[in-house]
Amino acid sequence: MTTGVWFRNALRLHDNLPLIEAAKSSNPVICFYIFTPAVYNPDYMGMNRLYFLLQSLEDLKNRLKKQYKNGDLIILNTSKSCKDVFSQLCKADVLKEVFYEYDSSPHGKVRDTQIQKEIHQVSFKVFHGHTFTKLPDVVAQKGFKNPSTMSMMENIMIKEFGKGKGRSGINVPSPLDPPDEINFDISFLKKIKKRCPELEILEKVPKLKDLSKIFGPLFDNVNVTSIEKNNFFHGGETEALERLERKVLDNTEFVCKFKKPETTCITTSASEFKEPSTTGLSPYIALGCLSVRQLWHGVDQAYAKRKGFKFDSLATSLYGQLLFREMFYILNEAIGPVFALNDKNNPAISKYVEWDKKDPKLLEAWENGQTG
């Protein structure tokens, strides 16, 4: 029997608890990713984001192959749901346990709850790494209140991790190195191809030009040339770590001068992509190509090179941006699916925005960066 590492939003080798714990298992290991219609749903996933995801998966697959003997990322595809994939794998009797990182999104919670409720032949184990804290534990604490200020977030973090000696004053745990060795199950693919003939296994990560053939007519009119040409941020852990080194570890001046809101994360030209005045690491953290703890300690290292330096405010520093991110994840966990709804009757703290009716000309101007 095999231990599976289900990659979702932790597309990296470093500081990856499911992967690290699986490597300690006495069972052989497989790593896999599942494409479902929910993954590439255009209501959630735009083409640029999807392209970034495909690049990140390709990078992860290559890093697994390069770093580990027989290492690989198995790509599964279904027109149904993840539950359908696990049902087939259970019939084949090939998986003993599955490790994965907690997903706090409304869709992720529904998916994971359904799988754990209906799939009994496999043991599922959840780890927390997409955020600093274990979100369910934080909101379940006695006396918890929805955080709305930086001081409230400081208190939550210090309560979780204690006070630290770094510039932030918070003792965030250090990121973990990738496993030295992983015993990959070299017979797994052969078994499931024989026992699960209906299970679709992709030999490689899809390219943009292949999306229509693999995922259907939804991608018939994709302008591949335009998407590839306008791709400024290349997805993947390799690029994330290089950007971390370039923008943070080797750029103390940038880290010390960083001050929100005196930055912009977008290009200043409608015709040319330029390096933003932020770190540009947000998309890498969003897909888990870079862990938040890795970035936090990178900022620690940068500040340590400038003895005696003090930032004006924790909230406006790079630390503060990560704490604000954590705050909104906590709020999402505490408030639930209504947190992000743009509705007049939304009981959450989100501000209601009265959007105009769809105007094709205005949308086209926005898409082309011609709004003024």
From TrEMBL:
GO terms for biological process: circadian regulation of gene expression; entrainment of circadian clock by photoperiod. Binds 1 FAD per subunit. GO terms for cellular component: cytoplasm; nucleus. SUPFAM superfamilies: Cryptochrome/photolyase FAD-binding domain (SSF48173), Cryptochrome/photolyase, N-terminal domain (SSF52425). This is Photolyase/cryptochrome alpha/beta domain-containing protein. The keyword Flavoprotein applies. Pfam families: DNA_photolyase. Keywords: FAD, Flavoprotein. Belongs to the DNA photolyase class-1 family. FAD binds at T278, T279, G280, L281, S282, Q321, L322, L323, F324, R325, E326, M327, F328, Y329. Its cofactor is FAD. GO terms for molecular function: deoxyribodipyrimidine photo-lyase activity; DNA binding; FAD binding. Coiled coil: none annotated. Residues 1-132 form the Photolyase/cryptochrome alpha/beta domain. InterPro entries: Crypto/Photolyase_FAD-like_sf (IPR036134), Crypto/Photolyase_N_sf (IPR036155), Cryptochrome/DNA_photolyase_1 (IPR002081), DNA_photolyase_N (IPR006050), Rossmann-like_a/b/a_fold (IPR014729). It comes from Lepeophtheirus salmonis (Salmon louse).
